[in-house]
Design a protein that fits this description.
The structure is a single chain. The longest helix has 32 residues. The chain is flat. Helices cover 60% and strands 3% of the residues. It folds into three domains: 63 residues, Orthogonal Bundle (Arc Repressor Mutant, subunit A), CATH 1.10.10.10; 80 residues, Orthogonal Bundle (Arc Repressor Mutant, subunit A); 138 residues, Orthogonal Bundle (Tetracycline Repressor, domain 2). By secondary structure, it is mainly alpha-helical. The chain contains 15 helices and two strands.
């Protein structure tokens, strides 16, 4: 009987021997079911095991690929420890002396990019940085404070265009597209930000303040300017959540969107797609989140143009 462990071992060997290089796709769940003759659930568990070892990661629109820097985290790779620390070696003094807030934040962002925000824990960071957990708290007070620092770091990656384009519409569009580019690069941001209780991250606050300034120059009062800004933020957060959910679904199942559709054909037909839900059946192309964002932004800006105060 073929087990998920044996499948994971075979793919692991392909990675170790270089047959699968960093960035290359590993067999999908559908490919695994065909090659090894197992159920989808078994194929999914094999990919999840490889992901838990840090050997593979999910990429939106691509599937599961070999991690850029595969790091074996299974117990067989760790030296034994007489102190009984779950097989992990004790952090060295050099590692802790090099520990800085910036290193912690950068490591946290890399983990969130690869595995989602839930994977960012102080214990996980300590392993990645080869440091003691308590030493992290000398630089970061709590997980909430770490999230603020992560968002501030990411917001500082892309600065506002200088000079800015002429006209209110190109300026607001430039700001919205800057945020969308950040979210596509860091999908976890969609779940780490709030419209009603925003994180007090200086780089993010600067961009928000700039956007409110553009709207105030159009003649909107402060409260209305904020409402318009939050309407734009709602578009961003909504599309961002869909992006994040797709990333997590591909990471957990190893299936691309097309593979999920192929697997769901029979169930959708049973539920009436094609006989009862005719408009759903007429849709030919998969959802394009970039196109959704472009259309949503255009609709908001078109509506805003109709409500400009008389000056």
């Amino acid at each position: 009987m073929v087990t998920y462990q044996s499948i994971a071992a075979e793919i692991r060997q392909r990675i170790d021997t270089g047959r699968l290089q960093p960035g290359e796709r590993v067999p999908s769940t559908r490919a695994i079911t065909r090659e090894w003759g197992v159920a989808v659930a078994t194929a999914t568990k094999a990919l999840q095991a490889l992901q838990a070892e840090g050997l593979v990661r999910g990429v939106v629109g691509v599937g599961t690929v070999v991690a850029d820097r595969p790091q074996r985290t299974d117990a067989t790779e760790r030296p034994s420890s007489p102190q009984g620390t779950a097989g992990r070696r004790r952090p060295g003094r050099d590692a802790e002396s090099d520990l800085t807030r910036d290193r912690i934040v950068r490591a946290a962002v890399l983990i969130a990019d690869a595995e989602g925000l839930a994977a960012v824990t102080m214990r996980r960071l300590a392993v990645e940085l080869d440091a003691a957990v308590m030493s992290l708290y000398r630089h970061v007070a709590s997980k909430d404070d770490l999230l603020v620092l992560m968002v501030d770091h990411v917001m500082g990656e892309r600065l506002l265009p200088d000079p800015m384009p002429e006209g209110w519409r190109p300026r607001i569009e430039a700001m919205a597209r800057l945020h969308w580019a950040l979210i596509k690069h860091h999908p976890w941001m969609g779940s780490g930000m709030s419209m009603t209780r925003p994180l007090l991250a200086p780089n993010g606050m600067a961009q928000t303040d700039w956007s409110l300034g553009v709207l105030r120059e159009l003649g909107f009062d402060p409260d209305t300017a904020l409402q318009i800004y939050l309407a734009l933020a709602g578009l961003l957060f909504g599309v961002a959540m869909s992006l994040q959910q797709e990333v997590e679904a591909e990471r957990e199942t190893g299936q691309s969107y097309d593979e999920w559709v192929d697997q769901s054909d029979e169930e959708m037909e049973r539920l009436g797609v094609g006989t009862r839900f005719l408009h759903l059946a007429a849709v030919q192309n998969p959802p394009d989140l970039d196109a959704v964002f472009d259309l949503g932004l255009a609709l908001i800006l078109d509506g805003l143009a109709q409500r400009l105060p008389v000056r």
